[in-house]
Amino acid sequence: MFDVIIIGAGIVGCFIAKDLSRYDLKVLVLEKGNDVAIGATMANSAIIHSGHDPLDGTLKAKLNLEGNKMYESICKELNCSFNRIGAYVLATSDEEVEQLNLLFKRAQSRDIPCVLHNKDEIKKHEPHVSDEVVLGLWLPSTGIIYPWEVAIACMEQAILHGVELKLNQEVIDIKKEDIYQVITSNNQYQTKCIVNCAGVYADEIYKMIDPSINFSITARKGEYFVLDHLQQPLVHHVIYPVPSSKGKGVLIVPTTHGNTLLGPTSFEIDDKSAINNTHAGLNYVKDQVGKLIDHIPFDKVIRTFAGNRPTGTTHDFIIEEAKLFPDFYNVAAIESPGLASAPAISKMVVSMYVNKHNPEEKKEYVINANHDPKLNELTIEEKNEFVKKNPQYGRMICRCEKITEGEIVDAIHRLCGATTIKGVKKRVRPGMGRCQGGFCEPLVLDILARELHKTEEEILLDDLGSNLLVERTKHDDEES
């Protein structure tokens, strides 16, 4: 019997697990995938928005502003990347200038730092800005993070303090008697409380218990390009167009690791699981970013990807205890600015639960952030010290991102450690560089097999069934 079951291990579910782990509770996280931080957490713009965009009176506006203020200290506490690089919202017409002035007044009313800059002032900071740009809104509190890093760090903190994580547990039914019965594809769990953080599937999860559900979730696909590390930065800050009814528009975003993201699109799709790129989507991105920034080096694209955001019919976050089902909390429709709002969403949900049930807070609670070395951030002298202690730190596996065998071994043996090639990639980045795993992926596979005591054929790329190797074509003793 669990006190709380959290369905979904995206960044919001991971934050809630971490924050509930402060209390004397038995908590379980169920994730349908083969790792945490998949879904929308895996494919997004990685921006901690300032809070200027959501409409007044919405949860989006309130929680975005709160979350933005929380992230810097949280990332410092968890030893995660955070850069408050600032952003420009750029207008290219009189109509957009009018909308930009409304955003400026909205930001001012929320005490968000903001300044209007003319084209000449913008070009001092962003020399590649298009001549079509006539006015920009400067938002210095905008930040960027590495979303998977934060989600994994939160889950590790939760596990450290007793939270259980069960992967490959797709919820197929929920029954309510005196308690909740949560039935998965291969197990059954009992709990007093459910927190529904199932992303694009949150409406389907709630419908299992309440067929008269009063909201629905649509998947809104976002497609992106990833640019390689450039000798000179394309942009120094996050670049937004003036937003539309579909969202914040197609952006140009520097990442914490020196790449640049171009995207996303924002098109509703019927298949919630479809994360394929399309010619139409990528061409749309190309067309839109060219209106804001000149000379975009599309010959430096190293990857494209897509992800689906959960858009709700209420046009706001849905964060509430179900009226007909006590202790069933829906945390749904967490689209943009969901990433920026995640710690504040967690604070709100946990406060609702704690105020109702008054659980005891643990007397001993320590933050034990991951401090595995990131060798490409160290001096030569510091690297040499690590190599002296462990020669694995001297064996380069990923030449593009400069990741060593020792760092990959660390990623496998962490509390919420990697068990797949993609899991290693998310934690320490081999395969994120120019060759996209062309050279390092076979080596990562070998390391996973060795460290997990499995055969190479058993190692997965990502989800169950994604084996890269099927069988041996000849035995070692037959080789000449």
Class derived from helix and strand content: alpha+beta
Main beta-sheet annotation? 6 strands, mixed
From the alpha carbons, calculate the radius of gyration and give it in angstroms: 23 Å
Low-pLDDT residue spans: none
Work out the helix count.
Answer: 12
Strand order of the largest sheet: 9-2-1-13-21-20
* Terminal residue distance: 58 Å
- Morphology: globular
* Residue-averaged pLDDT: 96
Number of strands: 23
Strand-residue proportion? 15-25%
Helix content: 25-40%
What do these coordinates show?
The protein has 480 residues and is an alpha+beta fold. Helix content is 30%, strand content 21%. It is built from 12 helices and 23 strands. It has helices at residues 11-20, 59-78, 94-109, 119-125, 147-160, 202-207, 279-289, 338-357, 380-389, 405-412, 421-428, 441-452, and strands at 4-7, 27-30, 47-48, 82-83, 87-91, 115-118, 135-139, 143-145, 164-166, 171-176, 180-184, 188-191, 194-196, 217-227, 238-241, 251-254, 260-263, 267-269, 301-312, 318-321, 328-332, 396-398, 403-404. Helix 1 runs parallel beside helix 8 (338-357), helix 2 (59-78) packs across helix 8 and helix 10 (405-412) crosses helix 12 (441-452). The radius of gyration is 23 Å and the shape is globular. It starts with a strand and ends in a 28-residue tail after the last helix.
